[in-house]
Amino acid sequence: MFTLSQREVFEQEIKRSRFLAIALPVADEDAAKEFISRESYSDANHNCWAWRIGQNYRFNDDGEPSGTAGKPILQAIDGLELDNVVVLVTRWFGGTLLGSGGLIRAYGGTAALCLRAAKLIELIPTETIYIRTHFSELALIKARLAATEHLTISSEAFHNTGADLRLEIPVAHKENVLRMLTDVTAGRVQIADKAEDLSF
After folding, report:
1. Family assignment (predicted)?
2. Predicted TM-score of the model (pTM)
3. What pLDDT, on the 0 to 100 scale, is given for residue 194?
């Protein structure tokens, strides 16, 4: 799966109607709704949109015939295997009716051309785990963790005997990382799914 690295804009004219697509990476549903509200044009005939965030998605035809605008925009998002993306396609009517097929091609096509022009970044699925280690092993653990691509230490807290680390581990590397942590500490490291489960 991929998402956009930044906002992307694409505009085209189809039979005298002006279509403007704006795409944006978003973290959650609230961000998608805020973007749609902020970027919709009050002087346009239609502000149609779609977004996908994981398994959640929504789309809206904004007055166009049902299924001719929002759904084709969503299909453009899904066709490029994108996630955490919202696309707004605004139409200023030019006087020529496009028909259902024409609207589907216009909205879906404008969204797809916008998304294809965008720079993409790969989404790496991660899991959060917590570890507790003694000071004597902390430097070695951090050095080994640094060698794992896309792994991040999102927080670090020190206590009397050592440190607690919160790790964001790529799902594909999780088993290897857990095995490595156990091996380099001879089983002394504590590993938990929740911070409160750690104790010495």
Report:
1. Belongs to the IMPACT family.
2. 0.75
3. 85
